[in-house]
Fold this sequence. Notes:
This protein is mainly α.
Amino acid sequence: MIMFTGCAKLDYENPNGPIDTQVLTSREGLISLAIGMKQFYATSGVQALFITPGVTARELKGITTFTNVLEIEAGGTALPTFNGNVLGVWSNMLRTMGMAEDLLNNADEVFSAENDTKTGIKAFGSLFKAMSITGLATAFEQFPIETIEEGTATFVTRQAALEAAIKLLDDAVTAIAATAPSAEFNTRVVGTDMILPDCINVYRARINMMLGKYTESLAAANAVNLATKSQFIYSTQSPNPVYQQIAVAINYKPRANFGLPAALVNPGDGRLSFYFSTPDVIVGGETLKTLRGFFDDIAKPIPIYLPDEVRLLKAEAILRSGGAVTDAIIQINAVRTQASGDAFGVNANLPVYGGSITREALLVEVYAQRCAELFLQGLRLEDSRRFGRTPPPLNVNPVPTTFERSRNFYPYPDQERLTNSNTPIDPQI
């Protein structure tokens, strides 16, 4: 399957392979499409969403002479609309969206006599469509939420897009509660490394937080079983995409201290040694580390979410909704003081929170904990905006590294603008 813009079409390079109608109208075709969608997102989607916004949000530094890498590293108003990294985020999220729509649009007919498998396929499609919408909302101010072959997809605001994503996920929760997905679906599509209801609820909590719906975010976070573990699996044939870009291609290296100002980092934080190692290198006056964590082996799994993200979403929702600060501190300390037992081995091993107990100070603490716990998980750019970190300056290129992000949103790719007259004006920064 090749990259695409605001259009949706299965396009196989193999002329002897199945045509669209064979894939979309057969039982095995849709099951294979669901499996392929998950694999595509785990490789191409994760690479685009973790790497490019990771550079923009200062988690990574681009260190090669490739023009697209240097342009993302510089950021600012000079970031060109033909940048290949920006196109990668756009096209890989839209490719995922198109595959998810194919599942949603064809499951009723193909699985008409198998309600349990149909329920699973549609919930799976709803999750991955919501994931692609969330990825686009991380990077762009507006974007399509329905892919159209003719290249005339309509753009909607982030608010409208995220509302649509929540509707998909809420409907999926209702459906799987009424009809449990079949054993075949769970075995062949979801597998043993992904817990579908928990993944859905994590994204409900994330997206509701992005929408400012704090009560709904807290309720979704409370529905997540923190004892489960969901992750993308890799192999030498399907390699860890971040490892490929950082350890093999060596296009990027992680910034020291999670790329944060010193005031937000505790030097005793156990997550520093989880995510980073030596040798260090100095590039452009910045200390860059050797990456560890989930990204130091070709077959290392990458979490779909981390359990402590859920605790921090609870803390943030409590603080932003006017709940008891003591309840928020309990969630913060559950993350700070964890010395062992994390499902993925990410243990801060810090003392309890001892700072100011104002809501403003506690929100800064939640931000700092998210940056450390969720390093290079594709969440920092959205967090930087939501927590009101200082925006980058206009008409300063490159943006000084004293700023925690080098763009607010990306310009729309030329490939979209040339084929879709609905493409909006680019954001200023």
